């Protein structure tokens, strides 16, 4: 990176040197040209004031030539009346010369012409006299290319010196520029000397790093928990099957062992289904179909399906409220209701109740699942949505829980951008509330009523 920055600095510096040198030469040439024109204008004014003193005095003509000056008088028709450097009789008509045409039109004219014979630039200034003739003064100047040739070595030396200085400065600046970043790379937690402009970027990087570590830790814990949870029913199945296979179990034990194998198989199947469901919900690229779902009807279907399970524990199921239409995935809503109601039945007291309520509240649909069960102590309430977290691990396994139900509920709530709340007291039961966004008025119909589902 340092090498790349140094090269870029040197390239920029080279362009700057070349541009500066070219601009300086152009500026110098313009200043030089203006100075020459100012000089020959002054000569023209003097010659115009004392014309005879110049072209009738041989000494003055010689002095003019020594100074590089050339005086020419052109008549109205373009013929040359006098020239200090050539025989006017042999000279061609000057009417077509640009400086002459400009002088005839506007009173004065200037031009620069290159002479291949003398390899010089000649600057001409022409002025129209009162009688209509044109007085032209020319001054020979060394060709600008010759001046450049003489100064090119100096320009190259200065350019190399500037580039060398720029190279040294670029290395120094690059080192100082990257020093805080290199320090950060070797000591990520040390913010001393770090640029304030990159502090938000560093904050984002650290947060992402923490999230990645947390995610990795959660995955590691999840893998360990899955292995442990799968091992328990598989060990039981393997053990009972081995006893039956070895002939060590009598006929009465075989029936009991088969029942235990069936229970462990069901638990294993439930665990695998919940793991697959969580994996599906964890897939960020997974897209779910969103349709208008009647939350009340979905709750009623869920309770109908769970009547047998509730009856085994003598749990009463109640459905209260009215129809509320929400935009949701129907399968996920069924999964959410099943897990909430299943937990309400599983962790309830014999003869208890599960009350499901669906009502509109402040423009949203409120789903409440309340039980009269064992409840959750305050210190555990923040963790019950974690995967495989159980308040009473032994009792949870005995009741057939996988420890993933509420984790699935939390994911489904997040998928629907809903809000979830928990209220619970040990010995008095638990209530989980979820607020869903309701569909537009066209999807909302009311058939409000309260119904008792099952008693038994």
Ranges with pLDDT <50 over ≥5 residues?
A: 440-456
Strand line-up in the sheet with most strands: 11-12-10-9-7-13
**CATH structural class of the largest domain:** Alpha Beta
User: What proportion of the residues is helical, as a percent range?
Assistant: 40-55%
CATH topology of the largest domain: Heat Shock Protein 90
Question: DSSP strand (E) fraction?
Answer: 15-25%
User: C-alpha Rg, in Å?
Assistant: 50 Å
CATH homology superfamily of the largest domain: Histidine kinase-like ATPase, C-terminal domain
Structural class: alpha+beta
Q: Span from first to last CA?
A: 76 Å
Query: How many structural domains?
Result: 3
Structural shape: rod-shaped
Number of strand segments: 13
CATH architecture of the largest domain: 2-Layer Sandwich
Q: How would you state the average pLDDT, rounded?
A: 78
Summarize the helix and strand pattern as letters: HHHEEHEEEHHHEHHEEHEEHHEEE
Biggest beta sheet attributes: 6 strands, mixed
Tally of contiguous helical segments: 12
Summarize the model shown.
This protein has 456 residues and is α+β, with helices and mostly antiparallel strands. The chain is 54% helix and 19% strand.
Can you describe what's shown?
The protein is an alpha+beta fold and 456 residues long. The protein folds into three domains: 146 residues, Beta-Lactamase (2-Layer Sandwich), CATH 3.30.450; 69 residues, Helix Hairpins, CATH 1.10.287; 167 residues, Histidine kinase-like ATPase, C-terminal domain (Heat Shock Protein 90), CATH 3.30.565.10. The strands form three sheets. Strands 11-12-10-9-7-13 form a six-stranded mixed sheet. Strand 11 and strand 12 form a beta hairpin. Helix 10 runs antiparallel to helix 12. The longest helix is centred in the first third of the chain and has 48 residues. It is rod-shaped. It starts with a helix and ends with a strand. The C terminus is likely disordered.
């Amino acid at each position: 990176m340092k090498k790349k920055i140094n090269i870029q600095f040197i390239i920029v510096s080279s362009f700057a040197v070349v541009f500066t040198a070219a601009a300086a030469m152009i500026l110098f040439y313009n200043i030089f040209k203006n100075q020459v024109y100012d000089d020959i204008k002054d000569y023209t004014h003097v010659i115009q004031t004392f014309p005879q003193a110049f072209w009738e005095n041989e000494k003055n003509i010689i002095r003019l030539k020594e100074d590089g000056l050339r005086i020419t008088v052109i008549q109205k028709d373009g013929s040359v009346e006098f020239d200090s450097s050539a025989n006017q009789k042999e000279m061609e008509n000057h009417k077509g010369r640009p400086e002459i045409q400009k002088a005839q039109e506007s009173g004065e004219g200037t031009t620069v012409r290159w002479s291949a014979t003398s390899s010089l630039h000649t600057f001409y200034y022409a002025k129209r006299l009162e009688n209509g003739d044109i007085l032209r003064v020319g001054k020979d100047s060394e060709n600008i290319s010759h001046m450049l040739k003489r100064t090119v070595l100096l320009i190259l030396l200065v350019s190399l010196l500037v580039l060398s200085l720029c190279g040294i400065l670029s290395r120094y600046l690059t080192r100082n520029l990257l020093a805080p970043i290199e320090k950060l790379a070797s000591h990520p937690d040390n913010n001393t000397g770090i640029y304030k402009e990159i502090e938000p970027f560093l904050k984002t990087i650290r947060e992402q790093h923490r999230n990645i570590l947390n995610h990795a830790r959660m995955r590691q814990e999840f893998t360990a928990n899955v292995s442990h949870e799968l091992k328990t029913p598989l060990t039981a199945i393997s053990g009972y099957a081995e006893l039956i296979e070895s002939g060590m179990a009598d006929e009465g034990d075989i029936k009991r062992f088969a029942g235990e194998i069936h229970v462990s198989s069901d638990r294993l199947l439930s665990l695998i289904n919940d793991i697959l469901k969580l994996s599906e919900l964890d897939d960020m690229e997974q897209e779910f179909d969103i349709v208008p779902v009647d939350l009340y009807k979905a709750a009623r279907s869920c309770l109908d399906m769970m009547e047998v399970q509730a009856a085994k524990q003598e749990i009463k199921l109640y459905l209260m409220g009215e129809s509320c239409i929400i935009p949701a995935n129907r399968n996920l809503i069924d999964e959410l209701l099943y897990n909430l109601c299943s937990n309400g039945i599983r962790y309830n007291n014999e003869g208890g109740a599960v009350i499901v309520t669906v009502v509109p509240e402040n423009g949203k649909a409120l789903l409440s699942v309340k039980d009269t069960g064992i409840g959750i102590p305050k210190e555990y309430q923040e963790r019950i949505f974690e995967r495989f977290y159980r308040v009473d691990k032994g009792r949870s396994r005995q009741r057939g829980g996988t420890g993933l139900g509420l984790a699935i509920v939390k994911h489904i709530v997040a998928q629907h951008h809903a809000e979830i709340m928990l209220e619970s007291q040990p010995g008095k039961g638990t209530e989980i509330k979820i607020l869903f966004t309701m569909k537009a008025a066209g999807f909302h119909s009311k058939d409000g009523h309260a119904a008792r589902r099952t008693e038994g």
